């Protein structure tokens, strides 16, 4: 491409077949792109006109009434046609002044042939030129693609890709990223770089979505715009490649160049993240020390994590576990490891995008996470919690949509202000995952402080105390249900859910009120007490929750 311009009305006027033509109106529109040429003599032209079409006509439509003539021109203008060529002498001898004025107002070129001309010569000439140009464009794109491929195979240097794009597009190239350094080819002044970065962060980044096709055009000012193409990895936009345009409209060639570059950039981003993951394997040792509680001091722990020591304020530390469940039992170990690694790289990129300091370690199918953020306001913890929830949700959606027979489970312990106490946070994260997997109503819980009474139940030694507690308080009901199938446990559960309302309990169970009364009498008889007794009710509720949890885990 190397700066080749788009075929325009100005180029059309330079063709030999237009030697005897003149531009009657729309001189400011001579830079309109011409994509195709065809003849139209009908009045209802909208269905047959595409953007960038150059229309040839003998002006038969000009013999109609004034309103119909104007409507013809307005249809062409609305359809964003390239322009209109009118042959005089066959149907008309001049173009009405109001039509020329309408074209002039919209910078719509009107070309006039004052003598008859063979339209077939025009279409053959222009079409041959357009086809040849398109062929050259495809050849250029193939060369461009090969050069990008060579650069991606040669190194992980993003600047090399951007230089290739700059050479072909002959325009300022920018690369804006939320996970690495912004780049400009050629380089620009620091103040301009800062302005573009602010513009991208405030105006562009929120519009970049992975499922959006094609490029986005944003105006820096009246004369300068940037054509952006998002760089998509794992279905997430991490960066964007852009071309700076000065008083010009984007072309198909620019869009294709950006599309090819964005795909090559995505390859480099992924490879860089994988290489970074290998370089950061020494983080495993630090997480292992956290898990085993072998951190000698808080100051040393924060230094090893790469945190600056704060003279004022403190950090928030959040530890968690993301578990990759492979439901395909026939999947090879290599495939499982590959999926685990993809999840790890995606997680690292998402946390990096959110500017969270983090340590990650993949062990088997479990990824250990330790995040840190300065507590700047009272809402910092809530904001951090929201970021973690959003990150997990994205990974779960990615697994559901892109990975076959893979489920993602996650849990986070309580937020802590000292890194030396986060070993307990990892234990709490395990408990969250166990509760979410075993108790249906808790399946969407992510954080330790959201599992409520199960904090206590998970802390109780399982054998023999928890089973004995269940047996002491519910043993009679369990045995009776097993022998007589009266569903006393389900009745008790529904009764507690309804806060003791017999009408609501009967509604939940879809049974007659008298049947419920009989069951409640039987329950009171077996437990040798009264459900109205607060102490008895609390014991039964705890025992019922423990029973359901143990039953699901078994």
UniProtKB/TrEMBL annotation:
Domain called PucR C-terminal helix-turn-helix: residue spans: 488-546
One Pfam family cited in the UniProt record for this chain: PucR
Top-level taxonomic group: Bacteria
Ranges where the Purine catabolism PurC-like domain occurs: 11-130
Cited InterPro entries: CdaR-like_regulators, PucR_C-HTH_dom, PucR_C-HTH_sf, PucR_dom
PANTHER family: CARBOHYDRATE DIACID REGULATOR, DNA-BINDING TRANSCRIPTIONAL ACTIVATOR ADER
Record-given protein name: Polyketide synthase regulator
Lineage of the organism: Bacteria, Bacillati, Bacillota, Bacilli, Bacillales
């Amino acid at each position: 491409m190397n700066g080749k311009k788009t075929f325009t009305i100005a180029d059309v006027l330079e063709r030999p077949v237009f030697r005897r033509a003149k531009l009657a109106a729309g001189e400011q529109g001579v830079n309109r792109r011409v994509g195709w040429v065809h003849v139209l003599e009908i009045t209802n032209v909208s269905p047959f006109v595409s953007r960038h079409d150059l229309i040839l006509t003998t002006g038969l439509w000009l013999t109609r009434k004034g309103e119909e003539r104007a409507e013809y021109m307005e249809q062409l203008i609305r359809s964003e046609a390239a322009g209109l060529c009118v042959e005089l002498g066959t149907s008309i001898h001049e173009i009405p002044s109001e039509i020329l004025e309408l074209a002039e107002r919209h910078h719509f070129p009107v070309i006039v042939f004052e003598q008859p001309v063979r339209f077939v010569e025009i279409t053959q000439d222009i079409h041959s030129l357009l086809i040849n140009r398109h062929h050259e464009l495809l050849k250029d794109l193939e060369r461009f693609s090969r050069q990008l491929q060579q650069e991606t195979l040669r190194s992980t240097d993003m600047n090399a890709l951007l230089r290739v794009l700059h050479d072909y597009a002959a325009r300022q190239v920018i690369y804006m990223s939320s996970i690495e350094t912004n780049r400009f080819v050629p380089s620009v002044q620091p103040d301009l770089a800062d302005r573009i970065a602010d513009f991208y962060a405030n105006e562009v980044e929120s519009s970049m979505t992975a499922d959006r096709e094609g490029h986005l055009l944003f105006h820096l000012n009246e004369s300068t715009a940037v054509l952006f193409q998002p760089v998509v990895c794992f279905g997430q936009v991490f960066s964007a490649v852009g071309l700076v345009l000065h008083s010009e409209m984007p072309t198909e060639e620019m869009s294709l160049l950006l599309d090819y570059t964005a795909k090559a950039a995505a390859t480099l981003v992924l490879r860089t993240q994988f290489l970074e993951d290998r370089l950061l394997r020494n983080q495993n040792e630090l997480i292992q020390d956290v898990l085993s509680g072998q951190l000698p001091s808080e100051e040393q722990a924060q230094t090893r994590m790469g945190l600056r020591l704060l003279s004022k304020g403190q950090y928030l530390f959040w530890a968690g576990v993301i578990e990759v469940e492979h439901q395909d039992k026939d999947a090879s170990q290599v495939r499982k490891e590959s999926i685990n690694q993809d999840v790890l790289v995606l997680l690292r990129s998402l946390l990096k995008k959110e500017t969270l300091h983090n340590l990650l370690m993949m062990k088997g199918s479990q990824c250990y996470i330790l995040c840190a953020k300065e507590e700047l306001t009272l809402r910092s913890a809530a904001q951090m919690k929201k970021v973690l929830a959003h990150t997990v949700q994205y990974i779960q959606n990615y697994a559901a949509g892109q990975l076959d027979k893979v489920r993602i489970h996650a849990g986070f312990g309580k937020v802590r202000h000292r890194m030396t106490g986060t070993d307990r946070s990892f234990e709490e994260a395990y408990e969250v995952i166990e509760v979410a997997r075993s108790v249906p109503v808790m399946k969407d819980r992510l954080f330790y402080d959201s599992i409520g009474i199960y904090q206590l139940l998970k802390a109780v030694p399982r054998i023999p105390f928890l089973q004995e507690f269940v047996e002491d308080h519910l043993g009679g009901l369990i045995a009776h249900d097993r022998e007589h199938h009266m569903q006393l446990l389900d009745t008790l559960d529904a009764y507690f859910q309804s806060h003791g309302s017999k009408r609501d309990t009967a509604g939940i169970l879809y049974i007659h009120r008298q049947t419920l009364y009989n069951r409640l009498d039987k329950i009171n008889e077996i437990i040798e007490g009264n459900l109205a007794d607060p102490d008895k009710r609390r014991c039964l509720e705890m025992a019922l929750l423990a029973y359901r949890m143990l039953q699901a885990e078994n």
